[in-house]
Fold:
Amino acid sequence: MHSTKPSIGIIANPLSGRDVRRLVTKASVFQNAEKSNMVLRMLGVLGKLGVDEVFMLPDVSGIASRVIHALRHGRAAEASSLPRVSFLEMPIRDSAADSLKATELMKAMGVSVIIVMGGDGTHRVVASASGDTPLLTLSTGTNNVFPEIREATITGLAAGLIASGKVRVKDVTSRNKVVRCEVNGNRRDMALVDLAVSTECWIGARALWEASCLKELFISFAEPDAIGLSSIAALIHPVYRSDAYGLRLVVAPPGEGFMTVQAPIAPGVMAPVSVAEICEIRPKEVFRVETSRGTIALDGEREIEFSENDVVKVWLEMDGPVTVDVNKVMQQAAKNKVLVQQHEG
Amino acid sequence: MAELKKEDLLKAYRTMKEIRDFEERVHKEFATGKIPGFVHLYAGEEAVATGVCMHLTDEDRITSTHRGHGHCIAKGVDIIGMMAEIYGKKTGSCCGKGGSMHIADLEKGMLGANGIVGAGGPLGCGAALAAKFKGKGGVAVVFFGDGASNQGTILESMNLANIWNLPVIFLAENNGYAESTGVKYNVPTPNIADRAAGFNMPGVTVDGNDFFAVYEAANEAIKRAREGGGPTLLECKTNRFYGHFEGDAMTYKAPGEVKRQREECDCLKIFAAKATASGLVTAAELEAIDKEVAALIDEAVEKALAAPTPTEADLLTDVYVSY
Structure:
């Protein structure tokens, strides 16, 4: 079923921002009340730009209910230009499966764009199913690399400009790189920014916050102002989202590498990392993980446990999610004066 | 991150298996009518008590809930004495006068199971205050459930603990049901840990069915408390396989819910699969523990059945404690 009028999707992960990084790295606690407020601020501008309908995840954890309450009773209810908000008909499992299912449904409905609110983990899940549907990424935390930290009103404005056709999608979007992995030829997964091989045996509390367990890093892009594991490579050899290559970095025991980099591997954590090797990697160039036992962390979170019996292969691909460059959208809007009304005389 | 050696893994498995077999056996024995009072079983939640208490010494204190058997075993309380206590026998941990909901062992730092929902908060703050005065790095862990998370005692304790920067960990065991009321109905946030922000302390949610997740997060929270960093709210999302109490028909659970949890979310199965896949322990080693634990539980029941009950002369003993 495709919408005939402009519509967009919003996936706000209610569960993001509660992992062990609150304890070990002083990462921020992002309240769901603020996520609801962000949605309301976006709705405020979307209607003005002619967006007819907004689809949301039917969470039962506060975000959706606050939006409903505000639409019915709050100041927002007084504004006549708000888009219709519809909640997807789907079971809620309180897991990553919810964001995945919502992405599939929104894609099938033909929404113009999907606004994603969450961390790198939420974005990775959405990106695995978004295909050609452009994503507008919004960070709801302190330790994310892939999504942007930006005022939601402007993200909503950019979504509205694209959905209403006032800015052409192809002028403001680009396809991202991803790092893919495969275990024993079947289980597949991906990282949007960095895939790390760790000697930690267990997925455990998921986050990686100690450099001593790092062995190898595969990176799709590494920007010098990034927080997280990609900063290790970024401070030696920056690679940008638009570059047609990635990086592989091998970590050495302390003091044994050819250089040591002081990197902000987590919020508030600067760690010395000794580097044995760093090289550019090309798309589809397959590497076999050299570490015999440990875990694979995707965008900073341990996701896959492997032992010496497993064969783990990693490679870079250019077929990642399509994302919207909000700066470009607003530049186009300004250049073409799409929000400007000239007055006679 | 805390490294787990082979002996740690075997110890963790033994503790979880002791709790599981203890509870499965109490479930059966309760049906015979020989156990007085009420029992509330911890089966399904073993990874939580075990993953936390492995970081504690006898000098550290824990407070518990009405569902306290797992906390007792994980804190090292004697299983023979516990079973006798549940049977109301003189050889029990509390001389048969407390029963399931009041098992305590001060020498082990177990300040008692507790029939009052949320009562462990103030007790844990007291123990943490004492530990702070002693200055030896001791901590207190307050185990409480999703129902207790709404009690004033727990919220007031969190407030006090943060004002006084006490070495206490508020350990929310979120098994999804406050007696028969679903957590989504009575807690307005998706995670109990979300409430930490209101008290200016870290709030962390982990998968309570994964021993390794609990163990790692608890290690960080306890280490922080020992170093003077203050309280943490750590939430473990888990499941209970039995009703709120023995005899509860669980009409509030969906058909097949417990069956699915036993198949997909059993912390013991998850642990055994991960531990053996790592190559650090073998299935044979775990099976050997299974046999030893089964024998221990048999012995506990046999001894409990054979033990004498308290007499009238015992009625007025142990009423007051000298400090």
In short: The first helix of chain B runs from residue 6 to 30.
